[in-house]
Each structure stands twice: as C-alpha cells, then as structure tokens.
Amino acid sequence: HGRLEGAAIRPWPARWNTDAAAWSAPVPTLVRSTWDYIHALDDFDAWIDRAAAVAPLWNPPSVLRWSLRKRYLLELEARGVPVTPTVLLPRGDARPLSAVAAARGWHDVVVKPEVGAASFETHRLRIDDPTADAVCARLVATRDVLVQPYLPSVEDHGERALVWIDGAFTHAVRKTPRFAGGVEQVSDALPISAAELATGTAALAGFGDEMLYARVDVAPGPDGVPVVMELELVEPSLFLLQSPAALERLVAGVARRL
Q: Which value, in Å, is the radius of gyration of the alpha carbons in the chain?
C-alpha cells in the first residue's frame, strides 16, 4: 500500500465476498488475496462479472476464469509446454487411485483438487499405502481431482516460483514442498535459469498485454527439463518482499493502466 500511495495511487482494500458496496464504484480492481474463492466458486465467478462490469479488473476476467481450474495443465501439454504429467479424475470417477497410477507407472503421487489454493487437500500418497485409494475416493466424491507423479526434484533443487510482472519475469524463489496443513517456506530472490525462462515463457505465450502479473511454478522433470507444476494467474503470492525491483515494476504497471 505504501508504494502505491507513494505513486499517488490510493489503494482501497475490500473483500470480494462481503464488501458489496465496493463493487459498484467505478474503480479498477487489483486481485490479490482471494484465496477463499475455492469454497464458493460460483459466487466468485459472479463477482468477477460484477467487478469487471464497472471498471477494469487485473487480471482480466478471461485470464482469471481460464486459470481457476487446473485442467489448464492438459491444455498447456497439448500446446507442447513441458508440464507435470496429469490425470484428471472427474467428480464421481469410480477408478481407484492405485489403478490410475499403475497405468502410468507411478508409485509415488500427488492428489489434489482441480480447484484449490494454499495446498488445500493436497496429498502425497504411495499407491502401496492401503489408505491411498480411500483418500482419493473421498476427494473425488465431491470434486474433480488431479493425480500427478511426485517429482523428487522438489526436495533438492526445489520448486521454483517464477514471478512475471507487466511483461517480464523479474525473479524466482525456491519453495519447499507443501501439503495439506503444511507451512510454506521460501528463499530469498533467485535468478531464473535459461531453461526455467524457456518453460515459463512457453507457458505464458498468447496472453500478451492481457495480464498485469503471473507466477509460473516449475521444477525439473525426470529428464532435467523444468516442467510447469502450476500456473498462478488469479491471486498468487508474488514474493515482492524478496525483490524491491519487482514491487516497483508492479506499481509502475498499475500506474500505467490508470
């Protein structure tokens, strides 16, 4: 807030689902921490329409809606972007996790909701664990679910969050693996490698000037090539404390759009 005010921009914090009066004002909206939308997706979808009807919304509705459901990984894969291999289990799918994983040759997997944030209901499971099928079945009973192989590289190299602001990648941070109930730990700002930059650029290709911010979370796949784990375009932590230059770029991007 202080940096926005320093640029003669007055920020007005408001909650998307309680401060109804805010969304009738013709004031642009910068989405930042709407992490509870995963429990009220239809309401959040309606809020996107309401906020965007009176003033610009950053990121814009088309970007937000596309990235709400993590099946975008399948679309990225179809475009040739390196991604974590992913199987989508539709709600009510009766296939046991052990069978789904065995068909792909996976023994150590991550299971998580297709719509999620902050590691909500994200579980690492071994398919020889007698409880694994039950954990997955519980999730699939109420929601669409993603099944992915666990990438051992997140333990040594680490998952890297590549931060993109107003047209350029600015920095990265290393994140420790995080599952349901866990606490996220991140490093200081890190440079982005050429291989990470290539994957991140491919993942964001086609968005052009639509976005103000983005985050591409990557980790090395089995062949060492960075793969997209998640593409965060709704409400990502941008780790601005780790990079004053990124903060300045975000403020400048907001000012340019006003």
A: 19
Spell 233-248 as b/e; 16+ CB within 10 A means b. Answer: bbbbbbbbebbeebbe
- Alpha-carbon gap, residue 68 to 114, rounded angstroms: 9
Question: Do residues 108 and 153 make contact, with C-beta atoms less than 8 angstroms apart?
Answer: no
Tokens 């972007």 sit on residue: 81
Position 21 scores a pLDDT of 81
CB 114 within 8 A of CB 71: yes
The token pair at 194 is 């050429």
28-to-2, 22, 58, 202, 236 alpha-carbon distances in Å: 18, 10, 8, 29, 18
CA distance linking residue 156 with residue 74, whole number of Å: 26
Q: How many CA atoms lie within 13 A of 254 on its CB side?
A: 23
Give the Cβ contact number of residue 20 at 10 Å: 12
Quote the pLDDT of residue 22. Answer: 84
Q: Report the sign of the C-alpha dihedral through residues 71, 75, 78, 79, in that order.
A: negative
**What's the CA gap between 23 and 124, in Å, rounded?**
39
Distance CA 167, CA 164 (A): 7
Report yes or no: 151 and 208 within 8 Å, Cβ to Cβ: no
State pTM to two decimals. Answer: 0.93
- Model confidence pLDDT, tens digit, residues 107-166: 999 999 999 887 889 999 999 999 999 999 999 999 999 999 999 999 888 899 999 999
- Cα 15 from Cα 43, distance rounded (Å): 13
Tens of pLDDT, residues 12-58: 899 999 888 888 889 999 999 998 999 999 999 999 999 999 999 99
